[in-house]
Write a structure and sequence with these properties.
Chain B: Keywords: Cell membrane, Membrane, Transmembrane, Transmembrane helix, Transport. The structure holds two protein chains of two kinds. Chain A is built from twelve helices and no strands. Chain A is an all-alpha fold. The mean pLDDT of chain B is about 90. In chain B, helix 3 (about 60-95) runs antiparallel to helix 11. Chain B has two domains: about 1-35; about 55-285, MetI-like fold. Chains A and B meet through helix 1, helix 3, helix 4, helix 5 and helix 6 of A and helix 1, helix 3, helix 4, helix 5 and helix 6 of B.
């Protein structure tokens, strides 16, 4: 009896917590199809007519910023995946002097809090002439995001049997061939994890683009914040914009859920 | 000998060049810059050595001291939020059982993570809005008009509004960590304890809690590290205001550097926060030992 009772209270508490968790997001959708005037005069009421025009108006405001974000994300993901797997391969399959030290030097970077580097990284970017340029985002992003790839790829490549590589060596394959034709195709699931984690981190970043880029080159996160500033005049429009801009992250997470959670937990626990 | 060995190893080093080029240029070099320039007056073009002046100014600056006090509030509440709420949710999910229901709740709780963090921040700004915000509208709807507030715009409520941001604090990494750990616990042992007459509360306090110590530790460390660095939320919601009521050291660092071009002072704050993170992480690893 008491067991049944505690199960019921447990369920009730869970349902309440879940509702509170989701309420902001229900409001997000609800207001995105509601007319501004209706929001002001009748906060709780259902929309009289569903105002899809919010979406087409918002699309015109955010589309170029989403394109900019996607460009930065895709180039960063390619860089992170290539560098991470290349270095991971070398650390897993090669023997050379100073290997241990170099590995610590590389992975130790994960201990550096990003806050420490914000100011001097900006100075570095400025010196290289990358302010208000996408390179000012992409290059530092690659530097940081390749490390998860090194970590995961090294572990994976170490688990492969040496015969696999020996056979290819006897057939005359050089080291680059071994990496690109033997190792790389085998670690695609791992690269998916690295790619997804990288994509989401880069797409969601607001601070660094805000520091580096001017308004005309803005990423989606910058556009979202400025929508909000002007959004006092039209909540429905800004909310529709937030939803449109969230589509890339939603798609990436939904189709890569398994890889995403794996990568997030490993990344957090290992660093 | 040395040339043939060098040739043998050169390919390994060659393959590592890109990775190291990136981390030296964009991580190690900036870190060195930060440490050097924390002792200078720096406008990105010229710098002048001023010894410990930046640090002296920092500790005598009343804005910084307010920020540090606020940070204490943020960090303590962040740890409590991360330790308690996601654990309660994860435990309750396993209490009510049923694989399908478990999956449904887990998915529901992590649903907000689908959106970029900035969208959640902007949504909460709307929730706190004095006119069209959910909280005030809710108060009006239940007849508590007198309780309505400019939550973020009033010094008495602003900092607690930032603390309350994201309530009930479940969607996030700690929830996933607890969920995985509880799911991986030895069920036979727990069943045996139940048969021996232990009630659910005893199982929770005597078996679950000790088992989860490593998770508590990881979550505490991660939360401290992210709490000290977190100012995007503050920047968007209040910009540290009204006055300096919600500011924190990271926010002050940002303003010093990018608001008033005091890059040396900004670096000094960054270095100080880094040292605090280092000490706290070390303290955590050393003294919150897992030997049970």
């Amino acid at each position: 009896m008491t067991a049944r009772l505690s199960k019921w209270t447990g369920s009730a508490v869970l349902v309440i917590l879940l509702i509170i968790t989701l309420v902001p997001f229900i409001i997000l959708f609800f207001f995105s199809i509601k007319d501004q005037f209706e929001i002001l005069i009748d906060f709780w009421g259902m929309p009289e007519v569903i105002k899809w025009a919010n979406y087409s108006d918002a699309w015109n405001v955010v589309k170029s910023s989403i394109g900019n974000s996607l460009y930065v994300c895709i180039v960063t993901v390619i860089g992170a995946v290539v560098l991470g797997s290349l270095s991971g391969y070398v650390f897993a399959r090669h023997k050379f002097p100073l290997k241990g030290l170099l590995y610590i030097l590389l992975i130790g970077v994960m201990m550096i809090p990003s806050l420490l580097t914000i100011v001097p990284l900006y100075a570095t970017i400025a010196k290289l002439g990358f302010t208000n340029s996408y390179l000012g985002l992409i290059l530092p992003y690659i530097a940081g995001t390749q490390l998860l790839g090194v970590l995961l790829c090294r572990t994976f490549f170490e688990s492969l049997p040496e015969e696999l590589f020996e056979a290819a060596r006897i057939d005359g394959g050089n080291e680059f061939y071994l990496y690109s034709r033997i190792a790389l195709p085998l670690c695609l699931p791992i690269l998916a994890t690295v790619g997804i984690v990288t994509f989401l981190a880069v797409y969601s970043d607001y601070l660094w683009p805000f520091i580096v880029l001017a308004q005309e080159k803005q990423t989606f996160t910058m556009a979202a914040v400025s929508l909000n500033r002007s959004g006092q005049s039209d909540i429905g429009l800004s909310f529709a914009g937030y939803i449109i801009g969230s589509v890339p992250t939603i798609l990436v997470i939904v189709f890569g859920m398994k890889y995403y959670i794996e990568g997030m937990v490993t990344g957090a626990v290992k660093s | 000998m040395s040339t043939s060995r060098l040739r043998k190893y050169s390919i390994s080093y060659l393959f590592l060049v890109p990775s190291f080029l990136f981390i030296f240029t964009f991580l190690y070099y900036p870190v060195i810059l930060a440490f050097i320039h924390s002792f200078t007056k720096w406008n990105l073009v010229t710098s002048e050595w001023i010894g410990f002046d930046n640090f002296r100014v920092m500790f005598s600056d009343s804005v910084f001291l307010t920020g540090a006090t606020n940070q204490l509030i943020y960090t303590v509440t962040d740890i409590l939020k991360a330790l308690i709420f996601p654990l309660v949710a994860a435990e309750l999910i396993f209490l009510i059982g049923g694989n399908k229901i478990k999956y449904l709740f887990r998915t529901g709780f992590i649903l907000p993570m689908l959106l970029p963090g900035i969208v959640t921040i902007l949504l909460w700004q709307n929730i706190y809005d004095p006119n069209n915000g959910l909280i005030n509208q809710l108060l009006i709807a239940v007849g508590l008009d007198s309780w309505t507030h400019a939550w973020l715009g009033d010094e008495t409520t602003s900092i607690w509004s930032i603390v309350f941001f994201g309530f009930p604090f479940i969607a996030g990494l700690p929830f996933l960590i607890y969920y995985a750990a509880i799911g991986g616990m030895n069920q036979e042992q727990i069943e045996a304890a139940r048969i021996d007459g232990a009630n659910r509360w005893q199982v929770f306090t005597k078996m679950h809690i000790p088992f989860l110590i490593p998770q508590f530790k990881v979550i505490t460390i991660l939360t401290i590290i992210s709490s000290l660095q977190d100012f995007v939320k503050i920047m968007v919601l209040t910009a540290g205001g009204p006055g300096v009521s919600t500011t924190n050291p990271a926010m002050i660092m940002y303003n010093a550097a990018f608001g008033s071009s005091q890059y040396g002072y900004g670096s000094a704050i960054g270095v100080s926060l880094f040292l605090v993170i280092l000490v706290l992480t070390f303290f955590n690893l050393k003294f919150l030992k897992t030997d049970y």
